[in-house]
Design goal:
Mean pLDDT: 84
CATH topology of the largest domain: Growth Hormone, Chain: A
Low-confidence stretches: 428-434
Number of strands: 0
Number of helices: 21
Order of helices and strands: HHHHHHHHHHHHHHHHHHHHH
Shape: globular
């Protein structure tokens, strides 16, 4: 491999983190970017609640499903290629919507399948998340992965909250169509910049240059501890064959899935249960969404210093406490606010801690594990709200508080699974309960 003390790879890990984070931010914004379109189509097409719900959910659903194959793809190709493909698909979706509105200012109901397709394409950008996890992991040594992954995921997760606030102002200022033309132009610029400046981890660059790869020499020269093994499908099979991957998936189902679920649920909760205005309810929802995303960054630093297991444990204790307060806050706004803050704190820290553990428990299949955990874990955002809605169906208004029993049960089960996982931590000295 030449001089073992010289790294022949281009770029630096900090630069790679910047471009990967920016790619995820741009892709994840598609969730909020598609929201106003649903409202516009609801009236124009006279959509039923079921069809409207399906249209609203399609970006997040495709974004979750595509995380699995594209996350595993990193182990074979590096992160740059799948990121460009996913962002290109998202741009195609936005372009398709713009063409439809240009040709048909008043859309008809028979055009619904086309808008559903374009919504699915818009959601492709969300899948950048599971591509970025192994991409960053391959650049950073394990002792710094928690902080790096938390910066990546925490800042990228700000996109829905920020765009939910920004987009309405753009629509008012420059109009509906022009707002999306601007967003398409920004995404196109991002594609070009990533294509020119982003570089894959040293392992993939060495392989591209035809240099023989010695993992020990690669670590010595470039600081890359993890190297992929096998194909994308093999990466998924390797990660899926380890039962610990499924415990981490459940953790992420509760925390990140819960984050998505509550971002959708809280506007209705505050407006219907506490009788707040839609603006105030939206503000309190943004408080949860943005604070949970920012706390994810702090959770990464805590995971590097305390260990991912300890942070995971404490995080689920906070989710249990926050859920309990929400159940008890039948008419106490202060209690409900305290519960929301605890939920944001617990979910934000746990989201970082779980992906600190992914490279540790699946070092030979980081891409496959990231795809499984990130993809299937995100489905919590679609499973949890209907479960919470059942309490309203059977208990009426009181069900808004009782619905948080779902999170109380899920987080309590996570604590039981944590004890099992911690018992099999892959190190002689367990960094969990001491």
């Amino acid at each position: 491999m030449g001089d073992e003390n010289v790294c022949y790879a281009q770029s630096r890990k900090e630069v790679a983190l910047f471009w990967t984070t920016l790619a995820f931010f741009g892709g994840f914004a598609g969730v909020s970017a598609f929201g106003p379109i649903v409202s516009k189509l609801k009236d124009a097409m006279a959509l039923s609640p079921l069809l409207m719900g399906l249209l609203a959910a399609c970006p997040a659903l495709s974004g979750s499903l595509l995380r699995i194959p594209f996350g595993a793809m990193v182990d074979r190709t590096g992160g740059k290629k799948p990121i460009l493909i996913l962002l290109g698909l998202a741009a195609a979706g936005i372009a398709g919507i713009m063409v439809m509105f240009y040709l048909y200012p008043e859309p008809q109901s028979d055009q619904y399948p086309l808008f559903l397709l374009f919504g699915i394409l818009c959601g492709s950008g969300i899948a950048v998340f599971s591509v970025g996890i192994p991409t960053v992991s391959y650049w950073y040594p394990q002792k710094k992965q928690g902080s790096a992954l938390a910066i990546y995921a925490g800042l990228g997760n700000l996109a829905p909250g920020l765009f939910a606030i920004l987009l309405p102002f753009l629509v008012v200022a420059i109009g509906f169509t022009n707002s999306y033309i601007l967003w398409l132009a920004m995404l196109a610029v991002l594609l070009v910049l990533i294509g020119v400046f982003m570089k894959d981890a040293p392992y993939f660059q060495y392989r591209e240059m035809g240099i023989d790869i010695d993992p020990d020499a690669l670590m010595l020269a470039c600081g890359e501890e993890l190297v992929p093994s096998g194909t994308a499908m093999q990466s998924i099979k390797t990660a899926g064959a380890d039962w610990r991957t499924w415990i981490l998936t459940y953790f992420y189902f509760v925390t990140f899935g819960g984050f998505i679920a509550l971002t959708v649920w809280f506007p209705t909760y505050w407006a219907e249960f506490h009788q707040f205005s839609l603006v105030k309810a939206g503000g309190l929802t943004a408080l949860f969404s943005l604070s949970s995303s920012l706390l994810r960054v702090l959770g990464g630093y805590a995971s590097d210093r305390m260990g991912g297991e300890k942070v995971t444990l404490y995080s689920f204790v906070m989710v249990v406490a926050g859920s309990s307060l929400m159940v008890l806050a039948t008419r106490s706004i202060g209690l409900a606010l305290a519960g929301e803050i605890l939920l944001a704190l617990g979910m934000g820290f746990a989201n970082a801690a779980v992906f600190k553990l992914v490279p540790k428990y699946s070092p030979a299949a980081v891409g496959g594990a990231a795809g499984i955990v990130g993809g299937l874990g995100a489905f919590g955002g679609f499973v949890v709200p209907p479960l919470m809605g059942l309490f309203i169906k059977f208990s009426g208004q009181a069900g808004y508080a009782q619905g948080f029993l779902v999170f109380l049960a899920l987080a309590s089960a996570a604590l039981v699974l944590f004890v099992i996982l911690n018992r099999y931590a892959p190190s002689e000295v367990k960094p969990g309960i001491t």
